[in-house]
Amino acid sequence: MKINLKVWRQKNNKAKGELKDYKVDHVSPDMSFLEMFDVLNEDLITKGDDPIAFDHDCREGICGSCSMHINGRPHGPLAGVTTCQLHMRSFKDGDTIVVEPWRAGAFPVTKDLSVDRTAFDRIIAAGGFISVNTGNAQDANNLPIGKEAADEAFMSAACIGCGACVAACKNASAMLFVSAKVSQLALLPQGQPEAKMRVMAMVNQMDAEGFGSCTNTGACSAECPKGIDLSNIARMNREFFSANLTGK
Amino acid sequence: MSNILDSKIPEGNLNEKWTKYKSSVHLVNPANKRSLEIIVVGSGLAGSAAAASLAEMGYKVKCFCFQDSPRRAHSIAAQGGINAAKNYQNDGDSTYRLFYDTIKGGDYRAREGNVHRLAEVSSSIIDQCVAQGVPFAREYGGLLSNRSFGGTQVQRTFYAAGQTGQQLLLGAYSALERQVGMGQVKMYSRHEMLDVVTIDGKARGIIARDLVTGKLERHFGHAVLLCSGGYGNVFYLSTNAMGSNVTAAWKAHKRGAYMANPCYTQIHPTCIPRSGDHQSKLTLMSESLRNDGRIWVPAKKEDAEALRNGTLRPTQIKEEDRDYYLERRYPAFGNLVPRDVASRAAKERCDAGYGVNATGEAVYLDFFYNMTEKYGRTEATKKGIENPTAAQLKEFGAGVIKEKYGNLFDMYKQITGVDPYEEPMQIYPAVHYTMGGLWVDYNLMTTVPGLYALGEANFSDHGANRLGASALMQGLADGYFVIPYTIGDYLADEIRTKAISTDHPAFVATEKEVEDKIQKLLNIKGTKSVDHYHKRLGKIMWDKCGMARNAEGLKSAIAEIQQIKAEFWSNVRVPGEANEFNQELEKAGRVADFIELGELMCKDALERNESCGGHFREEYQTNEGEALRDDVNFAFVSAWENQEDGWKLHKEELKFENIKIAARSYK
Q1: How far apart are CA B563 and CA B586, in angstroms?
Q2: Would the ipTM clear 0.95, i.e. be above it?
Q3: Same structural domain for residues B282 and B370?
Q4: Whole-number Å distance between alpha carbons of B436 and B262
Q5: Which residue of B has its CA nearest to A86?
Q6: Which helix (H) or strand (E) holds B650?
Q7: Which residues in chain A are contacts of B161 at CB distance < 8 A?
Q8: Could you say which DSSP state residue B352 is in?
Q9: How far apart are CA B463 and CA B261, in angstroms?
Q10: What is the C-alpha separation between B628 and A235, in angstroms, rounded?
Q11: Which homologous superfamily is A118-245 in?
Q12: Share of chain B above pLDDT 70, in %
């Protein structure tokens, strides 16, 4: 296959960026999207050009590093996959593909397709945990948790923190990411003691980072590679209002 | 035997060593902890757990990771589960059994004292993780669920679907971020450690590069913990993440830390076979699938040939024409033999001409029997259907399989384009884990005082072969429950050491060396990319220091690697500048270290004239093709010291006082 690419190039956070054209020949349908970029970068290096910076690590859809906005969609055309799990068999010979970084004020560009997502870490640091020091725990089976609640908590906990939800949202809202963590811990009995403090602290930090508001378009969940459900946002709203009402 | 290597295993009965140690180890009082600084390199299970736990105790911690967030460390990708001797299944498990299985699984090449401690703390790990909100799989009664892994006959593996590593790491990460929020840990993401600073023989800090600005930074610590993972990427293709590297450990090695058993590599039997030359990494299919999957190849060569050229589908091969070779060779453990045994058996069948894909390097992992007969029938009975049709059995069974392994099946389909609910998976062994690593004593301290190694970065617990679901256990054991005690033994004597200024000549000189090396790489301006050399190195390692090794191959590998090293340093092309985000420069430094490590791995493999665990020397095997250990001459840990003119081997004798060392049989 031959593929034409328009790729966002930006030297650093302060520089002005632009879309540049590239051609990649000899693309195999079995290649992953990132392997196609490996081939392109190998070409660029051989020609003496600067290779394209992009984030990637595990290449099996779980670390949450890869973050390409492909033809206007986070992680490309397929539902439920990260960029590293997207294969070239999803494209046609001769296609032109536009590749950009995540676009959000709270995710400044580091270089080319790589962005700074440390805002997510700061939101977790504000309250995305259960305060239990090492060594404080009781026997694990002393606290039975119904399978349904455990499974639902797991579904929320499956978030990989890639930021596709923010990139998909016209307001660059981080509600899906934040609500997934709030929900996971709200669904479990261990999470109850600090539930109110948690949701307040995380929402405040989310606002302080400059993420936008939620207007319920649902683009976040539709584009989420892990299928994190919109009901997480509803649960977080309930948690947040209840925390507010009780003045905690 | 060298007397330099004091493993510091406490005296006394095996099951009292750790308890006694804990009650007699030196403590640091809370006021003094506040003025002691600890550097943690790496934020995976070992690093995050250690950084969080030490910060909770009051130490000042700095944690470094090269990824953009500590949550992305490669522990996140572990799929199947974590072992613990809880005996929740009432199937006869105990601390001793977990200890015994681990020593035997490691082919009697691990230390009894360390492994027993690991088994002892395993239970507390599960307790801690549940308290943090890790959503492990549960039964309807609300209690924790378990499954089986290879090399054991009990069910002691705790799991969260096929994403156990993710859930455990997010638990440790949230504990870490909690301490970041409280100001007890300062987190340095997108920072790579490029050297250890030693002063008067003790580790006193690191030189790190800010990967975004390219600036070199000096950081002081009273102690330095390397939690930087394994070095499987020396093979280029492995199941490791692209960024996983040996650099932190290797720099430590260059500064005096011994490298132990570098040749012990785990080749995981169930990975998706490679599809072409463009391949950048290999993907694991969790060992937990072997609970329900049966491994086979055709019994007839003509069928294998027809499968390879696509004229036959696996589903068309009759039951009697299939060779379930693991069940045939190892009836007691069947499909649940340990990884090294399963991998070699797959290689044996493929080498004999029974491989099932175009490359001839693939076998089947088939779920059809358990899907229909085990789960399908149970579900039909639950629904009150007495004579279910084949279609019903499959439909009901697929539902159960989906719940257990859904994400793995989806991943397989995504990568290969084949639906594993319809056709058996194709799998082949791939490099997965490295049992070797920095030599550490019982305190997890390397041969450099004040420099520690935790998790996969050290060598201590898995011997020559790691059992499935034990890496997560060891990483968290080291981080949560071992280092918080053992570090006190060293730091109690450091309470009078004031923070050393990073203007100290040792910091200045080490930074200069790092800077010179970076400039050297950038100034070669050759014609070949970093990946070019990495791929060449990987091929040599896989062909000659992979699943099977022999003296002749290893000798030629050493010569070829030396040649690659010379070419790399004269003809590599590293584009860009030092003072910017430069991913090629990062890779170049890592590959330079992999090349040196590769040579040492081959040297270690050549030195060890026996077969044990993941180290299979073709010259040393039984008539049935099983690994042939030599306990008289090789019951020791190889610890390599880096010297000006090469490496010097030190040996730590392994003493088995509680387990009778025996031939390892899974028949």
Answers
A1: 22
A2: yes
A3: yes
A4: 4
A5: B414
A6: strand B646-653
A7: 154
A8: I
A9: 9
A10: 59
A11: Alpha-helical ferredoxin (1.10.1060.10)
A12: 100
Token couple for A234: 């509803």
What is the rounded distance in angstroms from the CA atom of residue B618 to the CA atom of residue B620? 5
Nearest CB to A136; choose among B131, B144, B281: B131
Closest CA to B557 of B537, B535, B531: B537
On whether the CB atoms of residues B260 and B456 are closer than 8 A, the answer is: no
Instruction: Note every long-range contact of B345-349, with CB atoms under 8 Å and residues 24 or more positions apart, other chains counting.
Output: B345/B269, B346/B269, B346/B295, B346/B427, B346/B428, B346/B429, B347/B429, B347/B547, B347/B548, B348/B625, B349/B297, B349/B323, B349/B325
Would the pTM of this model clear 0.80, i.e. be above it? yes
Q: Could you give phi then psi for residue B40, rounded to 5 degrees?
A: -115, 120
Considering the domain architecture, whether residues B380 and B523 belong to the same structural domain is answered as no
**What tokens appear for B154 in the block?**
């009990």
Active site residue B138: no
pLDDT at B3: 53
- The reply to whether B424 and B510 lie within a common domain is no
Residue B617 is assigned to a structural domain of this protein = yes
Write down the residue that tokens 């169930």 correspond to: B270
Range of the domain at B513: 504-645
Beta bridge partners of B225: B40, B452
Residues 6 or more apart from A141 whose CB is under 8 A from it? Answer: B86, B88, B143, B144
Number of H helices and E strands in chain A, helices first, is 8, 7
CATH of residue B606: 1.20.58.100
Is residue B286 located within the same domain as residue B385? Answer: yes
Confirm whether B551 is domain-assigned.
yes
Report yes or no: A153 at the B interface, CB cutoff 8 Å. yes
User: Coil, strand or helix: which one is A87?
Assistant: strand
In angstroms, what separates the C-alpha of A13 from chain B's closest C-alpha?
10
For residue B398, give the nearest of B413, B385, B409 by alpha carbon. B409
Fold of A3-111: Ubiquitin-like (UB roll) (3.10.20)
Q: Is B518 helix (H, G, I), strand (E, B) or coil?
A: helix
Q: Which residue among B290, B339, B590, B664 is the active-site one?
A: B339
CB < 8 Å to B283, chain A: 59-60
pLDDT digits (tens, 9 = 90+) for B150-204: 888 999 999 998 899 999 999 999 999 999 999 999 999 999 999 999 999 999 9
Chain B residues lying within 8 Å of A118, measured CB to CB: 68-69, 189
C-alpha A88/C-alpha B329 separation (Å) is: 41
Please say which residue of B381, B410, B430 terminates a domain: B430
What is the C-alpha separation between A144 and B142, in angstroms, rounded? 4
Asked whether residue B315 is assigned to any structural domain, the reply reads: yes
Lookup: tokens for B527: 């014609």
Domain residue limits, chain A? 3-111, 118-245
As a whole number of Å, the end-to-end CA separation of chain A is 59
Instruction: Give contacts of A 223-242 with B, CB under 8 A.
Output: none
B203-246 pLDDT, tens digit per residue, is 999 999 999 999 999 999 999 999 999 999 999 999 999 999 99
B655 CA to chain A: closest CA distance, Å? Answer: 31
% of chain B beyond a pLDDT of 90: 93
Question: CA-CA distance, B355 to B332, in Å (whole number)?
Answer: 25
Q: Let me know if residue B56 belongs to a domain.
A: no
- One domain for residues B281 and B420: yes
Residues B315 and B419 in one domain: yes
What are the Cα distances from residue B215, in Å, to A15, B289, B501, B595? 18, 45, 19, 25
Query: Which sign does the torsion angle of CA B435, B436, B438, B444 carry?
Result: positive
Q: Which of B21, B73, B99, B45 is nearest to B462 (CA)?
A: B99
CA–CA distance, B389 with B385 (Å, rounded to integer)? 9
Q: Which residues of B touch A143 (CB under 8 A)?
A: 130
Q: How far apart are CA A234 and CA B202, in angstroms?
A: 54
The C-alpha atoms of residue B482 and residue B115 are separated, in whole angstroms, by 12
Local confidence band at A248 (pLDDT 50, 70, 90 cut-offs): low
Would the pLDDT of A69 be above 50? yes
Domain end point (choices B430, B450, B485): B430
